[in-house]
């Protein structure tokens, strides 16, 4: 049987009632999923956390992974736009414009493609695949918490080998130790996701059918 969501193993939780912030500095969360087969379900739960993220940028490491992730999310009733170097230039321009104007809520992207994304209302970055090093992590995390807005970066780990990577390979060299936390799912909720004064795009559209 599948392990229940609120049974995921947790190392620590800084605030049992959850974390809210109005700080322009991003919070960095780590969710350890005990097996890769639970990763997609965990991603769905993150996207459906209340209050729901205004706009989300999901990072994976290859264009093929983008296609697979977009397809699997669609099968779960969640609409996400792909953003890779393999997309037509006009398609990338359209997605970027839709993000900027608030017409799209979820984008799945590769890191290189996302360098051209301009999304002032982006609230969440999710590293569905972890980046390779601290400089790439800094680039991904830099998509949120701009212009004094709050933002959250969620790192998903799916193996014992990966579970400490966000702390040792990213947080330490970038001096983010005081901003990175293990996230504890409790009763199907992710405490670190909630943001006070969460910015809202001027125009929105439904991103899921569930």
Automatic annotation (TrEMBL):
<keyword id="KW-0547">Nucleotide-binding</keyword>
<dbReference type="Pfam" id="PF00271">
    <property type="entry name" value="Helicase_C"/>
</dbReference>
<keyword id="KW-0067">ATP-binding</keyword>
<dbReference type="GO" id="GO:0003724">
    <property type="term" value="F:RNA helicase activity"/>
</dbReference>
<dbReference type="GO" id="GO:0005524">
    <property type="term" value="F:ATP binding"/>
</dbReference>
<dbReference type="GO" id="GO:0016787">
    <property type="term" value="F:hydrolase activity"/>
</dbReference>
<dbReference type="GO" id="GO:0005829">
    <property type="term" value="C:cytosol"/>
</dbReference>
<dbReference type="InterPro" id="IPR001650">
    <property type="entry name" value="Helicase_C-like"/>
</dbReference>
<keyword id="KW-0378">Hydrolase</keyword>
<dbReference type="InterPro" id="IPR050079">
    <property type="entry name" value="DEAD_box_RNA_helicase"/>
</dbReference>
<dbReference type="InterPro" id="IPR027417">
    <property type="entry name" value="P-loop_NTPase"/>
</dbReference>
<keyword id="KW-0347">Helicase</keyword>
<feature type="domain" description="Helicase C-terminal">
    <location>
        <begin position="42"/>
        <end position="191"/>
    </location>
</feature>
<protein>
    <recommendedName>
        <fullName>Helicase C-terminal domain-containing protein</fullName>
    </recommendedName>
</protein>
């Amino acid at each position: 049987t599948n392990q229940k969501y609120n049974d995921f193993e947790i190392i620590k939780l800084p605030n049992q009632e959850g974390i809210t912030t109005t700080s322009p500095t991003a919070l960095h969360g780590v969710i350890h999923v005990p097996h890769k087969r639970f990763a997609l379900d965990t991603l769905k739960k993150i996207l459906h956390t209340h209050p729901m993220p205004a706009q989300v940028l999901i990072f994976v490491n290859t264009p093929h992974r983008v296609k697979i992730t977009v397809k699997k999310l669609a099968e779960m009733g969640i609409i996400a736009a792909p953003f890779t170097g393999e997309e037509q230039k006009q398609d990338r321009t359209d997605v970027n414009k839709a993000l900027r104007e608030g017409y799209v809520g979820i984008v799945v992207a590769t890191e290189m493609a996302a360098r051209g994304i301009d999304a002032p209302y982006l609230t969440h970055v999710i590293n569905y695949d972890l980046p390779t090093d601290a400089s790439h992590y800094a680039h991904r995390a830099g998509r949120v918490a701009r212009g004094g807005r709050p933002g959250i970066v969620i790192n998903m780990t799916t193996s014992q080998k990966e579970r400490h990577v966000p702390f040792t390979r990213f947080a330490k060299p970038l001096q983010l130790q005081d901003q990175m936390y293990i996230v504890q799912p409790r009763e199907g909720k992710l405490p670190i996701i909630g943001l006070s004064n969460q910015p809202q795009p001027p125009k929105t559209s439904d991103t899921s059918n569930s």
